[in-house]
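[Q] Does anyone have a clean structure-token version of this?
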Amino acid sequence: MVKLPRNPSKKRVALFAVGGGFTLIVVAFLVVYFVLFPTSSPKPFKLVTSPATSTASASSASTSTVSAGGQWGIAAGSEAGYRVREKLGFLPAQSDAVGRTSSITGTAALTESQSTISITSAAFDVAVNTLKSDRSMRDEKIHEIGLESNRYPTATFVLSTPVTLSKSAVTGRVTRVSVTGVFNIHGISKRETLPVEFTLAGSTLEAAGSLTFPWSEFGMTAPSIGGFVNVTGKATMEFDLRLQRA
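[A] Here you go.
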């Protein structure tokens, strides 16, 4: 009995069908994940001046003998993280993707004169391998792609130039000044200057700001998940640091 050769076209059709079915399942999952159930992203960090607090704090500052000079350390409530824009296929994401952590360490040295407070040095470390967003799948992926936090678990900032704050502008109020320092992200160090908001309320000095940069500036590639979910060409690092006397 002579065996007839199998029809290779049927095998190819079956393989294409299986592959196509898998692709449809992935696409359907991602549509549900990113479109039907969009992310709920926290807003960017922004300090707010309270009129009542401003008046009271400014008054107490003029009579207080407590010096701001000395070492200040990270206090509870500090956060840092990333903000990126995701796209599903050709559709823009309905919100930013945001991951944050409170695993921050560091100190700042302050001096004080009659009318100013100066930050003479500061250095902070952020454990980026502890970043959490509202999507566990995203959190798992950034350990391996983009930020690659498994390889580079810590991001750092070291102040390069002292920052001088007016007492009347910062006590109980929000003031914005330029801050220059060296960021080390993804194992690459860059000197950057960015606007930072400061406020001094009671015993807490708070600083909030952000830095937006092309992924390539710190040797990273914008993440892509299976070609279906893509991240745009820039990332934002943002922070809200609360400092208290050490």
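[Q] Thanks! Anything notable?
[A] The longest strand covers residues 188-201.
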